[in-house]
């Protein structure tokens, strides 16, 4: 006895990862539906050892499914998520459309699972920004042990955060530069191959970008509104995997050894931290993995009660698809949803 599941945006990077992770985690699925825009109708995507054809979102009957994993962008979510929720299923939305809505829980299961109690208010649960997800997984156990008062974060975000088009642009520019071809930017504001771009999203009046604002807004909603947080988001020529340089200030002294011990016991975290040439994690190491990796934990001598650390995760997994599936697991485990064909409980 399992769930009837629909994935909206099944042809995209995250949609395909959702299909993979549902199978990897053995989430109980009785029926799987791939849904996309009309132009993708009939496109085949892999589901387990078979393929399924995408159905047109305009014609799909959402009342016949239990869970909808939404990964088609903010505009599609704003148009469809509330309609779908009113039809009965719970929508787990990967866009920014509902993250600030007070009636929509914003959840990272390792951090704020109790927020699932609000899932039925609109039948929508929001997935955070990919960079926020890995950040709060690393911060939560430290914050529980010694309250974080301030955080300074610089992100190094892979091009897959901009979708398949972002990955294509890095690949095509790299080939063009080696072949003396045309490397003119099309998606990104500047050349991304062999370069870094110190802005993601759109500029706000205060000089920050909306990507940076997402991180502090979401961290405040998920973890603690009293943490003072400043962020600089940077796009780097990496295909998959986001990295973050994080400096924290606490309300009491906390040593690097204590922080390592705390993080080693934390759910969803792997500590790889040795003062050796390979004693830390890079995006290549994290690609395809579920964990949030923490390395280079060290004292920040410039402030009182300060620590610096390096946080890396696969943004298509923990930053998006994995977190969405973990929310589905949480909905099932707490009995918030029950499959229309019966009830089966699984363990997160």
From TrEMBL:
GO biological processes: 'de novo' L-methionine biosynthetic process; diaminopimelate biosynthetic process; isoleucine biosynthetic process; lysine biosynthetic process via diaminopimelate; threonine biosynthetic process
UniProt pathway annotation: Amino-acid biosynthesis; L-lysine biosynthesis via DAP pathway; (S)-tetrahydrodipicolinate from L-aspartate: step 2/4; Amino-acid biosynthesis; L-methionine biosynthesis via de novo pathway; L-homoserine from L-aspartate: step 2/3; Amino-acid biosynthesis; L-threonine biosynthesis; L-threonine from L-aspartate: step 2/5
Residue numbers binding substrate: 157, 235
Enzyme class, UniProt record, top EC level: oxidoreductase
InterPro entries given in the database record: Asp_semialdehyde_DH (IPR012080), Asp_semialdehyde_DH_beta (IPR005986), NAD(P)-bd_dom_sf (IPR036291), Semialdehyde_DH_NAD-bd (IPR000534), Semialdhyde_DH_dimer_dom (IPR012280)
Keyword terms: Amino-acid biosynthesis, Diaminopimelate biosynthesis, Lysine biosynthesis, Methionine biosynthesis, NADP, Oxidoreductase, Threonine biosynthesis
Gene3D superfamilies hit by this protein: Dihydrodipicolinate Reductase, domain 2, NAD(P)-binding Rossmann-like Domain
Sequence similarity: Belongs to the aspartate-semialdehyde dehydrogenase family.
NCBIfam families: asd_B, PRK14874.1
Function: Catalyzes the NADPH-dependent formation of L-aspartate-semialdehyde (L-ASA) by the reductive dephosphorylation of L-aspartyl-4-phosphate.
Name of this protein: Aspartate-semialdehyde dehydrogenase
Organism this protein belongs to: Brevundimonas basaltis
């Amino acid at each position: 006895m399992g769930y009837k599941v629909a994935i909206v945006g099944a042809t995209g990077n995250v949609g395909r990862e959702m299909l993979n992770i549902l199978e990897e985690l053995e989430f109980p699925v009785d029926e799987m539906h791939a849904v996309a825009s009309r132009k993708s109708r009939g496109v085949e995507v892999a589901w387990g050892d078979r393929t399924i054809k995408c159905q047109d979102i305009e014609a799909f009957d959402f009342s016949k499914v239990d869970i909808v994993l939404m990964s088609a962008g903010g505009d599609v979510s704003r148009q469809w998520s509330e309609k779908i929720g009113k039809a009965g299923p719970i929508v787990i939305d990967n866009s920014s459309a509902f993250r600030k809505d007070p009636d929509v829980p914003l959840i990272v299961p390792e951090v704020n699972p109790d927020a699932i109690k609000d899932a039925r208010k609109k039948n929508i649960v929001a997935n955070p920004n990919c960079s926020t997800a890995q950040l709060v997984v690393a911060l939560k156990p430290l914050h529980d042990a010694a309250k974080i008062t301030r955080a300074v974060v610089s992100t190094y975000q892979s091009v897959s955060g901009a979708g398949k088009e972002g990955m294509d642009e890095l690949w095509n520019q790299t080939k063009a530069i080696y072949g003396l071809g045309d490397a003119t930017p099309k998606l990104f504001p500047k050349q991304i191959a062999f370069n870094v771009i110190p802005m993601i999203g759109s500029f706000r009046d205060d000089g920050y970008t909306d990507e940076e604002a997402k991180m502090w807004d979401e961290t405040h909603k998920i973890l603690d509104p009293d943490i003072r947080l400043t962020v600089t988001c940077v796009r780097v020529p990496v295909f998959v995997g986001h990295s973050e340089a994080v400096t924290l200030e606490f309300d009491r002294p906390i040593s690097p050894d204590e922080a390592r011990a705390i993080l080693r016991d934390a759910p969803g975290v792997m500590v790889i931290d040795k003062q050796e040439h390979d004693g830390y994690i890079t995006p290549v190491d994290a690609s395809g993995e579920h964990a949030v990796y923490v390395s280079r934990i060290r004292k920040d001598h410039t402030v009182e009660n300060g620590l610096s650390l390096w946080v890396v995760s696969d943004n298509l997994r923990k930053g998006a698809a994995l977190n969405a599936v973990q929310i589905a697991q949480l909905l099932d485990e707490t009995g918030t949803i029950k499959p229309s064909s019966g009830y089966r409980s699984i363990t997160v």
